[in-house]
Amino acid sequence: MKQDKIHSETLGESYIKIEHPSGLTMLLYPMEGFSVAHALFATRYGSIDDCFKTGADKEFLEVPAGIAHFLEHKLFENEQGDVFSLYAATGASANAFTSFEKTAYLFSCTDHFEESLEILLNFVTHPYFSQKTVEKEQGIIGQEIRMYDDSPDWQVFFGLLGALYQNHPISIDIAGTVETIAKIDADLLYRCYGTFYNLHNMVLSIAGNFTVETVIQVADRILKPAEPIAISRREIKEPPYVQSKRVEKKLAVAQPLFQIGFKAAAGDYKQNIADQIRCELILELIAGESTPLYRKLYDQGLINQVFVTEVLAGPNYIVPMLSGEGRDPDEVYRQICGEIESMKEKGLEEDRFLRAQRACYGRYMGIYSNPESVAGLLLLAHMSGMEGYEILDILTSATSAQLYEMLPTHFNSEYSALSVITPAVEGDVD
Hints:
This protein is α+β, with helices and mostly antiparallel strands. It has helices at 67-75, 83-90, 113-124, 131-149, 152-164, 178-181, 186-196, 212-222, 269-287, 292-299, 329-346, 350-367, 371-383, 390-397, 400-410; strands at residues 2-8, 13-19, 25-30, 37-43, 51-54, 61-62, 77-78, 81-82, 93-98, 103-109, 202-208, 231-233, 246-251, 257-262, 308-314, 317-325, 416-423.
């Protein structure tokens, strides 16, 4: 069993990276003084993995949209019953999520860590599907999909992605549609599970109050060695231009919601995550709370306290975004694009850059002091091909010149879009 100690000179802290004989990579970050332990058991399998093959397959298999999310739901139900009832006995808080590029199963606990970890490793590695339970789940997830159809936050988000992307599956709802999940059966679930839930494609990330020895002992008891598997995902051919510059939907909201996004030039997974950090700095320069533009938009009543910036990034996509609510989203969009063009003409002011860098650094330092955030950050870094502290190094080594060079490729107004949810009158909901 290979063990490496990954150390940060900046933080003066370390974590342990273990290549377990089963094939599983374990990222273990004990944190003294904390009472909570947070564990994530994840596979690099998300909603965008809709067409794939292994080394044993002659042809690519195209699967229905939403199957990764469907599989996440089904793993919580086994022949013994509901997994949540097992966690109830340990007092742990358990959950799971599916994103565009990964599926993760998790728990947080203050005691009975060993028992909770046993539950996690056991249920994720022992699938049980039958056609009867699959059909039952289709009804449950169908209700969930219809619920999100009425969620303004969800609809404005996928409205933006649908406007930006033409061929990329990122524009499709992670849960799929009622029609696509109707095509899922038990055999297809086992096929996807056998491909992506191979331990060589998985990561166990734990931070907080636990011991490395306990994790190794539990893994040794439960995990059996897996044969390495080669997974090929289809190449996504996406043009640089957007599908639509503006999309709008009417829902029951008090005032318009909006998201502005830029279809940035994407590289590989590692490059995109590195650029995500730099784009967060650029967004802080454009419309952070201390910027003149933010104050101007706020004073004009065009944004309020819910205005936020973030960057969505993954294996083959990166989208800097600005979100909020206000009476005139189109004017906010116009002023933001205008500010970006001004930056391209005048360059970036060094003192503003340094303030933005300090602000972002403070936020990231907060991440490293929270077990849940640390476990998530280690997982993200590893899946993108980095070590856990590299993200902080990318932030501290960024320069204003480096960010300026990214403006044309990552903040091109021509390759941007505005998604708006406007208030609907009675009988007028889309």
